[in-house]
Amino acid sequence: MLNLERLVPAHVWRFEVYTPSRPDQELMRLFRVDHLHRLNNNENPLGPPPEAARIVQGFPPRLAPIYPSGDAYALRQILAGRFGKSPDQFLVGNGSCELITSVIKAFCAEGDTIVTADRTFAVYEWVAEFSGIAARLVPLMDFGFDPKGMLAAGDERTKILFVCNPNNPTGTWWDTGTLRRFLDAVNGRRIVVLDEAYFEYVDQPGFPNGMDLLDEYPNLVVFRTFSKMYALAALRIGYLCGSPAVVDIVRRTHVVYSVNSLAQQAAAAALENDGPFIARTRAMVAAGKDRIKALCTELNLPCQCGEGNFVMIRVPVADTLLYRKLMAKGVMIRTMTGFRFPGWIRVSIAQEEVMEVFCGAMRDVLRP
After folding, report:
1. Does the predicted TM-score (pTM) go above 0.85?
2. In what order do the strands lie in the sheet with 90-93?
3. Residues 6+ apart with CB under 8 A from 278
């Protein structure tokens, strides 16, 4: 007789199943709309760079039965050339979620802890907790990571500090001086993961490039992704870079063959001539943020607009109620109660015509 009480660890029982949103066609049927503007997942609506798009469109069926490169060999060579590192300093994963898992498995055992912010990318906390590792959560300070609070929250069993820069969902960021002072204070005693998922969206003086700090801080691990700027979210591919010694340890816990061939080839192609594509995407985001800030002024709504391709808005009704009202108009946003920001929504930036639809929908549902 199956006895789940005996088989399932206690920390797994404490976890609730994450329920993703339903497929777009099903949502359109449920809300009786004939279109759906996705402003919920920080996707790049421009689609992948032309070089990557050609790879996706031309992927030959004859390669489908052949296993991919188990360690993304060719892509790691390209990344090494791009950033002036050794290929062995890179580890490619099935999105950043897999990389988070591999790093925690590599360094944490039962009784260890990680430290991160209480309102940031939730997967740091989730992976730790459902691995039986306690996550110590530090309150944000003025919507940003609190470096002193992060340092104070650790103890002798703290192995990893996760910093999202810029932070999802608030868009706040540490400048180079803040990050350096933090790393100096850690003094190599713990692994510091610097998640730069939105790095390519930032064009601000003083914003740090984690890749430039790796030689100086061997305990630093930098995360990057092809899901956000490069619009390859459906292919699930990201990477980390760190010192050879640290990456060697993480590689021991990492699942090989987890990244498919199409993702590896498309990611490599996305880097070929990405300057014009990044500039075009940044221009779209800047225009969209200006439009949203004007809307918030018009409707007297508090707005948290930092870096990244998203904006947070404080709304005068329950975020879940506003979600349903906007969905009825074919606009999908992210409710923020799950991020511990009840009463807020997060809006991903899209093209001008889509942002106009969003602004119109907001006026319709919030004005008396």
Report:
1. yes
2. 90-93, 238-242, 220-225, 191-195, 158-164, 113-117, 134-138
3. 200, 229
pLDDT in tens, 134-193: 999 999 999 999 999 999 999 999 999 999 999 999 999 999 999 999 999 999 999 999
| CA R_g for the chain | 21
Q: Around Cβ 263, how many Cβ atoms within 10 Å?
A: 25
Cα–Cα distance between 77 and 264 in angstroms, integer? 12
Q: Six-digit token pair at 122? A: 């939730």
Tokens 């920390």 locate to 11
User: Which domains can be identified in the chain, with CATH numbers?
Assistant: 4-48+275-366 (3.90.1150.10), 50-270 (3.40.640.10)
Q: Write the CB contacts of 13 (distance below 8 Å, at least 6 apart in sequence).
A: none
Cβ partners under 8 Å of residue 360, min gap 6: none
Spatial separation of the C-alpha atoms in residues 193 and 210, rounded to whole Å:
10
What are the tens digits of pLDDT across the range 189-223? 999 999 999 999 999 999 999 999 999 999 999 99
Where does the pLDDT of residue 328 fall: very low under 50, low under 70, confident under 90, or very high at 90 and above? very high
Q: Which tokens is 231 given? A: 């619009």
266 DSSP β-pair partners: none
The SS3 of residue 278 is helix
Contact 240, 103 (CB under 8 A): yes
pLDDT at position 368 over 80: no
Question: Which token pair is 191?
Answer: 């692994």
